[in-house]
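pipeline stage [seq->struct] | target=Interleukin-1 receptor type 1 isoform X1 | organism=Phascolarctos cinereus | residues=561
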Amino acid sequence: MMTLFWFACFIVLFISSLEADDCVEFEDEIVLVIFEDELDVHHGSSRKFGPPSNISWYGSDGKTAISMDRNSRVHQHREMLWFVPAAIEDSGYYYLVERNSTHCHKQKIKIEILKKHPGRCYDVLSEYEQKLLSGPGGFIVCPHLNIFEDKNNNLPKVQWYKDCKPLLNNTKFNGLKANLYLRNIQKEDEGHYTCLISYGYMGKHYNITRSIHLRIIGREKKKMPVILTPENRTMEVELGSQLLLDCNFTAQKNDLQYWTWNGSFAHKEPNITWSELSVPNLNDMNIVTRVSRLVILKVESRHYLYPFLCWVTNEAGIATTYIALRPPVSDSRMYLIGGFISLALVVTFSMFLYKIFKVEIVLLYRDSCHPYFLKKALDGKVYDAYILYPKYFEEGSSYISDIFVFKILPEVLENQCGYNLFIYGRDDLVGEDAIMVINENIRKSRRLIIVLTGEHSSYNWLGNTSEQQIAMYNALVQDGIKIILIELEKIKNYGNMPESIKYLKQKHGVIQWKGDFMEEVPSAKTKFWRCIRYHMPAQRQQSSFTREPSVLDSVLNSKKK
């Protein structure tokens, strides 16, 4: 009898091998990795089609059928391929053949048996990739353990490890059958997880191991909702009228929007209804543009007391805007408000014009009102300005300053504008004490004009340092004379100037000469002379005299020729 049994098995296997050659082989290849000395079971990727199918497993040549004897270390039991346990030499190709009365398919499977290394409970080649979102919690799954469930769907106890260290004594983790629950998932939870069970088969217990490489993915941050319209505003509404209030905003699909009035939901108030319309964003399907409409069927006086608030909220924050209602302003109040606004605009515009055109305005005022001015006030002053200038009699900048001081200044300010100037070297008498003359005439002057040139930035070119000291003392300390600084040439560096000059420049600024020294009769209407006249005292009466030429004038004219 035993001989007949083995002969029948041989015939079946032989016929199966012949039939396997007629099957259509799948193009896709499946690679399975398991550890040596562990039990493992594979059911392939069966494609159920048509009538009930028969499953057969074949060795690497695709023809030799796997043994059906359960005592064999590698055998087929039901539809699955069993390794009890796996050995390194089991690595290779296996074929799963699925056939019925109409079809036959052959699936090629590569199985690789890995050698265990001391101190390592996983191998990257055998790992399953799994991902979790960072957040409050989530599960990772020990794959392909359902084969080992008993008839009550119970599994042997699953032990979990992270980087080969036990986990289940840690309150962060909780095992549930083939699942491991992680609380408060963070980036540092990434790593290599191993699940292990001990399974009894044919009277012996074998280990079954699965390795998982867990990656943590950050959750997409919620975007703050944005209210497009309205901005915070107050609007006039007639009592008893109907009013539509629209809140236009962009938000994500699950963001919350509502209206409030006087601390409660507005749509729950009498005579108020609420509706909403959403329009998807074609560029980002998670973002929608929504319009929330509040309809006040009849405006009541109490609606003027509190604003209507539109709220949009999500995890990222809250956006809000308000619309306050008020009764229409009466005509008289409107006129009053309009008058105040107009007056404010006129004043502001006038100040703006004055700031830009103040020189022209002041000069125009002086010229227009000249006939109504009285004679100069009795302030004890004789001269309108004392001229402080460089006193070198050599070629160069001194010659330019002499032309300006002795010819151009008197021509414009005295002859054309009627001012009275004191120029040391022209108006002093021979033999007078210089210090006394300087001190006395500076005190008699309403302005101090200081002429600067570019070649002698140390200002020692004033020559008579006593004149400089007396002038500065009277201007800055004693009499407080207003000072006018004139640059005949551009001075780039004031670093070597006395502190008094630097202080005056910073406080009053300078007026730069841009005229022609050779011009016969300069005009007082140029921008430079208008600025000088603006800083000079108001002139009550035009001068009617012409000063006789001095000896110095003759010298200057001879130099010019």
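stage status: PASS
auto-comment: Residues 226-326 form a domain with the Immunoglobulin-like fold (CATH 2.60.40.10). Residues 434 and 440 are 10 Å apart (CA to CA).
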